[in-house]
Amino acid sequence: xxxxxxxxxxxxxxxxxxxxxxxxxxxxxxxxxxxxxxxxxxxxxxxxxxxxxxxxxxxxxxxxxxxxxxxxxxxxxxxxxxxxxxxxxxxxxxxxxxxxxxxxxxxxxxxxxxxxxxxxxxxxxxxxxxxxxxxxxxxxxxxxxxxxxxxxxxxxxxxxxxxxxxxxxxxxxxxxxxxxxxxxxxxxxxxxxxxxxxxxxxxxxxxxxxxxxxxxxxxxxxxxxxxxxxxxxxxxxxxxxxxxxxxxxxxxxxxxxxxxxxxxxxxxxxxxxxxxxxxxxxxxxxxxxxxxxxxxxxxxxxxxxxxxxxxxxxxxxxxxxxxxxxxxxxxxxxxxxxxxxxxxxxxxxxxxxxxxxxxxxxxxxxxxxxxxxxxxxxxxxxxxxxxxxxxxxxxxxxxxxxxxxxxxxxxxxxxxxxxxxxxxxxxxxxxxxxxxxxxxxxxxxxxxxxxxxxxxxxxxxxxxxxxxxxxxxxxxxxxxxxxxxxxxxxxxxxxxxxxxxxxxxxxxxxxxxxxxxxxxxxxxxxxxxxxxxxxxxxxxxxxxxxxxxxxxxxxxxxxxxxxxxxxxxxxxxxxxxxxxxxxxxxxxxxxxxxxxxxxxxxxxxxxxxxxxxxxxxxxxxxxxxxxxxxxxxxxxxxxxxxxxxxxxxxxxxxxxxxxxxxxxxxxxxxxxxxxxxxxxxxxxxxxxxxxxxxxxxxxxxxxxxxxxxxxxxxxxxxxxxxxxxxxxxxxxxxxxxxxxxxxxxxxxxxxxxxxxxxxxxxxxxxxxxxxxxxxxxxxxxxxxxxxxxxxxxxxxxxxxxxxxxxxxxxxxxxxxxxxxxxxxxxxxxxxxxxxxxxxxxxxxxxxxxxxxxxxxxxxxxxxxxxxxxxxxxxxxxxxxxxxxxxxxxxxxxxxxxxxxxxxxxxxx
Length: 908
What we know:
It holds the Pfam family MoCoBD_2. This is Aldehyde oxidase. GO terms for molecular function: 2 iron, 2 sulfur cluster binding; iron ion binding; oxidoreductase activity. Keywords: Iron, Metal-binding, Oxidoreductase. By secondary structure, this protein is of the alpha+beta class. It folds into 5 domains: about 5-165, DNA polymerase, domain 1; about 185-280 and about 345-435, Aldehyde oxidase/xanthine dehydrogenase, a/b hammerhead (Aldehyde Oxidoreductase, domain 3, Alpha-Beta Complex); about 310-345 and about 445-550, Aldehyde oxidase/xanthine dehydrogenase, molybdopterin binding domain (Aldehyde Oxidoreductase, domain 4, 2-Layer Sandwich); about 570-605 and about 755-905, Aldehyde oxidase/xanthine dehydrogenase, molybdopterin binding domain (Aldehyde Oxidoreductase, domain 4); about 620-755, Aldehyde oxidase/xanthine dehydrogenase, molybdopterin binding domain (Aldehyde Oxidoreductase, domain 4, 2-Layer Sandwich). It has 25 helices and 31 strands. A 7-stranded mixed beta sheet has the order 8-10-6-17-14-15-16. The chain has a 5-stranded mixed beta sheet with strand order 2-1-5-3-4, with helices on one face. About 60% of the residues are buried.
């Protein structure tokens, strides 16, 4: 058959049943992405005879003889298409995985369609941006600073260095590579929530043509580990094997088939015969701790870092400051309530996956979609008994993470398969596998009890938390401890009590997710503050002002932390409250709504430590090149968090050059050094400090080298406009590089950051909402967030992080929910049945930054990737309560959840 792709003819016959997406990808059109394979996300959008289509839904043979345009060919022979330039000017992307499909759809919109973008873009999902920058691209708005001179990059809205490649489909993600002799892996997964594997008969599977191997628990190393990746292994329990002889949730991997094609591997999986001994399962977390409940990990002990395996308790925390009971008895007002939060999927558009191969030197190479390449390498070396220098883990651009890729879900199987077969192998999760077999946010039940005196001063705070960690304990303890830390610590109160437990159940595991426990606990904590204020007749703003910590106050959460390195590097919480209150009180057009609509406002605040405790390490290295440019090497990964841009801004500012003169290498263990990973809000705060240290050291080396050449004092030399200057003398970097080369002393430096001391970031979210008392429908009339990010390294990017965090959190607050049935099965493992926020769902959020500069962070900056998410659901719950007079205590706040209580109060 003949195909015309981007004006070029291809004579190739697709496989039977092959969709257009995979066909184009095999032709090298890597801009066509896989996000869902069900027509729900739009990442695979191409133009077919000029019309946008989801190529995952089009049989490849139906495109024969028709004009196919992918993102690579959109501009034709004329360079970038106007829409590609518009997205570049507006920086209408973050991770960029959705961008090709989004641009192709936007490029076809007529004027009528542009008047209703909610309808026009309903087939294209962005998980990162919050859509404002995408709308800016359609409006022709530029969000980048032009003509930024040498040495002043920090603090400016500079574009992402990968931007031109992202908008033209040239940015390379995990699977955008052609590999010769590649074998494909498919996983057989458990249909049972809890069972022991008695036998696996692979004979029929091995008879399938093209099948090379079937791997089971008998082929896997016996080592126990955690899929969670932290710098310190003691943070997580050792309760997982590469392949286990016991399955503990529906969807757990049972066997791996390696074959010449996905089709052969899938057929072999169907032919595997597994004999199970089914044992009782427990799905409900409260029942899991009851006497007589099935024990999920009976052999685990405290040596495996499991608190009480016989009660299914992974981690727990019980402590009290003061006397909470006595303080509550003496309080003028008390509020008590129980809140529940649901299971949420990360829904990064690029699923987990990777490739593995052994190179000619015997090094095991893993190319994967990961936030933590260095930690993954360390664990793989331990599991398989390999020297660290015989394992390389790297990623290029990552299609979203949100904490879900701070896990090792595929790299262990990839390593096992590559080592067993000696061939290059590929494993790419389907969207359904992403739902049933990776990780989720921890569902929690939070009971809060709080008291205050007649003046609005808090007298007592008490939290009781039950966290469902699922079948494995990855991140169970740290998430639980974080949930009851800063949520408490941000308020001054003499009496505080915590009882918190994380338990195993026979359900899909929970893990790291943006906010890391705080979004759950804040729903309860911030509701309590509002309810106390309401009883006392004090405004929610004033109630918080009377009780929030201020510089000099201890940030206390029971039990006392063993880590005492959290400082007020900068303090802008008071400014954030003022900024939100001022914005919410500003005159705005009154909504044209009928009397059935109830209007209310709500706020919530959050504090977050900018780095996890116990160390977070980053190394950086930089060297001067002969042409006066610099090579900067960092370990942190780029997945839309913007660190690639900020690292270059730091280096360019310190070295008095421009960002285009900083060539960045990153996220590859082969580059040397170490990097704990891009998580815990550490990408800028820790890795950025390493870059700052390295560039400051290189600046010293440059001035010393110039001073030696000039026979003058190095103190009289300064860096200025890509040169060393001393009085009237000026030596360009190119000349300095030539001198260094002649002397055989390359000019290079390295830097390190250990993640301590730590600082705190603050955010305040405000909403004005309308709730229809007859239907439960909810509309957001205004969304405002103020953030203390220290000195903002890149205002455009930081604003995008806030907007994206709010949008993602609104999805979880309003409609996202993974449904687990009575057997422990995920009932809605696809986007079609799991409502992700689309353009029409997300209001514009007004973003304000406090005027601070952090004394701890690099050049005054601190974190702002996780924290914008945290106060959103809490503020929304407070706004709904203000509108309706009803305190809703379970998320998501869906209309069908609101309706019964509204009907009971207001009638028909």
